[in-house]
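New here. Invent one.

***
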Amino acid sequence: MYINNVLASSALLGLASAGYTTKYLTGSSNNTIQVLVEGDGPSLLVWPSFARDSIDDFHDFSTALADAGFRVLRPQPRGMGESTGPIVTTWAEVGADLVSVIDTFGNGKAVVLGHAAGQRMAKNMAAAYPDKVPSIVLACINTGINTNATIAATANIASNYTYSVEERLAALELGYFAPGHNASLWLTGWFPEAMGSVTGAPTSTTIGSNTTQILDVIATLDPWRREDQWNYTTGLVGNRSTVVFVEDASHALFPENLQGVVDVMVPWLETQTSSCFETLNREYWETNEREDHVCETAIRPKWNPQAARSSFRPGPGPGPTGPGKLSGTSSDMWLVEARGNRSRANHRAVHTIPEFIESSSCKPARWK
């Protein structure tokens, strides 16, 4: 028996009923943009994969993020939902539409989440508008490197209503949903006329600007992203990319393991959107200054799920030093970055990171 994963996840998370409102904007081509707006706080703009909208697929995700203190913006692509306008367009035109959404409903700045092929829009927005999109989330991206041809073919079959239900369901089970999950959820919600309709996309190796912070969310059962490609983003941009993993999920991800997505995404989003971090950086190194050390940069909060079993121990030399556990929960960690000359003997901090945050004048919301 299949379990409706969306409803099951809602019960697990204890989500409130959907509280989004529907807004409308006039876009760059005199088109209408339908935007679902939910929550209040720092903004996260969700852009779906090609040929799918962001309505049903992201309802529970949007509610979970709104409950966590974020404003979730879900503009519908042209030709989907109540959005209108020419479907065949350019990335620049779509980007201009999304800037209008961010300026109107997101206070001029947003983290952009691109799911699957929607990664290209996230990358493009970060590259074209770094002040408005300083951070992006890439969820279940296909690197385009040696993609299995059989897997690649599932996109055209799953989205094409001329195929039988059995053929489409088989394609969804192979390319999109992990065993035991309800692939029939995606038999609807496709807009095949929109596939390949946006031109002038950035190259696969372009990931935002040279300052863009990236959360690379990998579903461990995603056949579009083989294990030998799991270090793809870190290979391109180094420690500007944080890689996290969601178990028991494939390419569809959000209707498969919503709890896992929220667990890895919310802590990272908090580090990207809190206004306190710069103050914390300055206060920390003023408190822990040593005569033989001139620090170019202080600490930078960064989500690192592998740090859960470690306690904070500053290490010598430049670059990332040691992970620190911020609070009583295993999901709240920082990495510490220090640059400059610091001897091993004098490198030990006066406070651990959790102790310092408790005594700081500026605390992220999670620790207030």
